[in-house]
Amino acid sequence: MKASQVKKGWRRSACVAIVGAAMLALPAAAPAGQVPPGSPEDVGLSSERLGRIGEAMERHIEAGNITGAVTLVARGGRIAHFEAHGLMDLDSEAPMRKDAAFRIMSMTKPIMAVAVLMMLEEGKIGLADPVSKFLPEFAEMQVVAGAPGDAGSADGGSGAADPETVAANREITIRDLLTHTSGIVRNAERTPDDSLATYVPKLATIPLEFQPGTDWQYSGLAGPDVLARIVEIVSGQAFDQFLRGRIFDPLGMRDTMYFPSEELRPRLVTLYRITEQGFEKDPDPDRISSKVYFSGGAGLVSTAHDYLQFAQMLANGGELNGRRLLSPRTVELMASDHVDGLFDGKLGFPERGFGFGLQVAIVEDHVRAGWRLTDGSFGWLGAYGTQVWINPGEKLVTLVMIQNFNPEVQRDFDNAVTQALLD
After folding, report:
1. Which of 20, 158, 207, 231 is the most buried (most CB within 10 A)?
2. How far apart (Å, rounded) are the C-alpha atoms in residues 358 and 272?
3. What is the pLDDT of residues 169-189, one digit of tens each?
4. What tens digit of pLDDT does each residue of 384-412 get?
5. What is the 3-state secondary structure (H, E, C) of 7-57?
6. Strands 272-275 and 78-89
7. Which stretches of 243-300 are assigned E, i.e. beta strand?
């Protein structure tokens, strides 16, 4: 579909989606035990100014930057803004629904981190524990020679098929994996039949990209998948079963899962690639999803309302409607900087003003960072454009769910939320 064709009817489609949202959304009263709706003014937000969120989304839809979005803002434990914008599917012109399901990609990672921290609280895992305590294959890792933290020869390098290696200075730890400072970056070859149990040992054969703890490099799948396997080992459950029984069911997250169910598929937003010709439908949207491989780094499908329950639990210090998953001190640990400057300027984030905790980025100084998010916000995003930020001090949770990654859309959403805060 060409860009000119995509743009025709955007305003009409966006208006249909917003006006018809009440017909397609969740009930006005939230299900028992979940985050309820509330008046914006009652929680320190301006109803009029929140309207600028929709204006921002419509601008990006008309510009052909995104096909549609769901935006949600909660403060003080109440939903103050919840809207659908644009289209779920271009061919059918189906309006976006508030209960639309999105492939959240790396927004899987904070959920995985909570699973690890639950095991930490039970005394089954320690942040300083070597990975080899649970997976002996990782006891004697090799590091690419000349990598950060290594004073050896630079011959070979990470780009070589068989790079020259040296022994790791120390073993990698649980904290290293949680903070992307382990050196486990590259993935191994995975077959369709692989599970975490059969795949993760293969990662121990791949040299680390740097000496543990000396650098920050994003491990999109490999490192988080090692953590997911460790949760399986110490809990005695498959990772998907652990998430369902210990996180999703207690929080009422019925629409969050690894492989979209037949019931959920009609609400799954179509995934597109942006090309010179406009939006093109992704030919294999299920390639990340699996019925047998439950990644700690990506793969979950969820809705804005579902993910809100998880984020609100963290905003509340580990508890939601009487169900406590973590202690307040453990949530503080998750949202504290653990990398001491190693995250500066990485992965497109600002060179200053941000820290990195346990699978979440942290806004430490929004002025220095040049971002509109308030200090103390922590969260993460997905490769297809989903984003969550949580600020316990502001009692604020913000979610934007799109399926066309566009940082400009995310920053405009952040600005629209921030300017609506009245206190």
Report:
1. 231
2. 31
3. 999 999 999 999 999 999 999
4. 999 999 999 999 999 999 998 899 999 99
5. HCCHHHHHHHHHHCHHHHCCCCCCCCCCCCECCCHHHCECHHHHHHHHHHH
6. unpaired
7. 272-275, 278-281
